[in-house]
Amino acid sequence: SQKIEQNSEALNIQEGKTATLTCNYTNYSPAYLQWYRQDPGRGPVFLLLIRENEKEKRKERLKVTFDTTLKQSLFHITASQPADSATYLCALEQNQAGTALIFGKGTTLSVSS
Amino acid sequence: DARVTQTPRHKVTEMGQEVTMRCQPILGHNTVFWYRQTMMQGLELLAYFRNRAPLDDSGMPKDRFSAEMPDATLATLKIQPSEPRDSAVYFCASGLDAVSYTFGSGTRLTVV
Questions:
Q1: Model confidence over A82-112: pLDDT tens digits?
Q2: The domain defined by A4-112 carries CATH number 2.60.40.10
């Protein structure tokens, strides 16, 4: 079954800069990939979904790319703010039967003012 | 805003006791997941229901864990007997046709 790696456990950047988080998967290319945000003591919150035939998707200051050749998704937050500080999780389907979502361990982003 | 409701929010129990966690999914959602989150392992999938039918519970220790959906408004996760290694935050999530999932606030379980 699928394995997900989010390369950085923690990322520290200054306010106003662009944060770039990486998600790599190991096996077949999934039909879609999702990104979630999790704040301490809360459940994950859905941010964006990108499908295999989409190279890029944007939502306000967020941008996600999906490269099925590299088996990688990049998640960008432009003009980052301290309020963007949280853990960001990548998720995709567990196997080709299209069953449950599995998650990476996440990258904790800290944006300092 | 519609939300997934989990009860209890916190539970402290002694080793060997039965623990039941409850989840009320969003009305109309046809898919329900149970996940467990720890610092070491991250979010681990335990069980998965679609239209109330269990589809995948391969992530669950079968000898002590059980998951059910007695009706469309209630999902339960039971641990019997509980062990200290079960201490974690347990999340329920619901969704419709795999577009996105809404998570509850979780049940923080401590087994002493």
A1: 999 999 999 987 665 556 788 999 999 999 9
A2: yes
Residue B60 · residue B79 · CB < 8 Å: no
Average confidence score pLDDT of chain B: 93
Written as one string, the DSSP assignment of A55-94 is SEEEETTEEEEEETTTTEEEEEESS--GGG-EEEEEEEES
CB A94 within 8 A of CB A4: no
Chain A positions with Cβ closer than 8 Å to B: 32, 34, 41-46, 49, 89, 93-94, 98-106
Which pLDDT belongs to residue A104? 93
Residue A49: pLDDT band with limits 50, 70, 90: very high
Query: Which member of A41, A44, A106 has the closest CB to residue B103?
Result: A44
Say if the Cβ atoms of A106 and B104 lie within 8 Å.
Answer: no
Where in chain B are the domains?
15-96
Contact flag B103-A101 (C-beta cutoff 8 Å): no
Which residue from A minimizes the CA distance to B57?
A: A100
Task: Write down the pLDDT at residue A99.
Answer: 62
d(CA B69, CA B73): 8
CATH number 2.60.40.1180 given to B15-96: no
pLDDT reported for residue A88: 97
